[in-house]
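User: Show me a protein chain along with its predicted structure.
Assistant: Here is one chain, sequence first, then structure tokens.
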Amino acid sequence: MDEDVVDRVRLILTGRPSAHGFTRPTWTLEILRQVIAGVVGVLLSITHVWRLVKRLGARWGRPRPIVACPWKARRRQRRIGAIQRRVAAASDQQVVVYGDEVDLHLNPTIGPDWMLPGIQRLVLTPGNNEKRYLAGAYEPLHDRLVYVEGDRKASWLFVQLLRVLLEVYDRAQTIHVIVDNFIIHKSRVTRAWLAEFGGRIQLHFLPPYCPNENRIERIWLDLHANVTRNHQQRTIEALLIHVHAYLADRFDARRQALLVA
């Protein structure tokens, strides 16, 4: 097929059917066939449309919901730029970490998996859910993760992480912690602890709803993909063993710190 046609179909797929007069918000092969005929002037069979979609590397997947940052673009970029400069200037005296929490559920989140024809994989769920939470800090300079564990995502869990950071980086002049705007990061409890004990800690808040700017988010996503999604553990304790083992393997003993709250 002519490369110009392929490029034009790629451009079509970057948009939505509504841009071409259809009310359906998602693409089907038949709608794509009609749009190609109208825009490119080539009427293809459904089989050819399918082959073209595969040639483009398109996949049938679930979109990721996002919330738009309420800040104006210039203000958002100023804040992100300041944080990026802080990260670039990191040293053993000026430590920079990305902080965040992750939820761990005994009832597994169900995700896609490869299955043979006629076979639907089953994921046994315990029914009564139990939860645990990790509060972590990722240091890009030394590729190091420090984290604590708790049974509630509360201010004390974040404070415990800050306390551990002071111990781990006891020779650092300042520990810069980049976090989102979740309430426990700026609560009265957290502010009071920082006022009394956090002289060496500086919090840097990301713009609202900018998770891609927090580098620890990638670690949590990989943790879910490799351990918690579709898991088969019957107890939360068994699940946590696998969680800790995965993180210990990803961050070897020389770099990784496992500290349980």
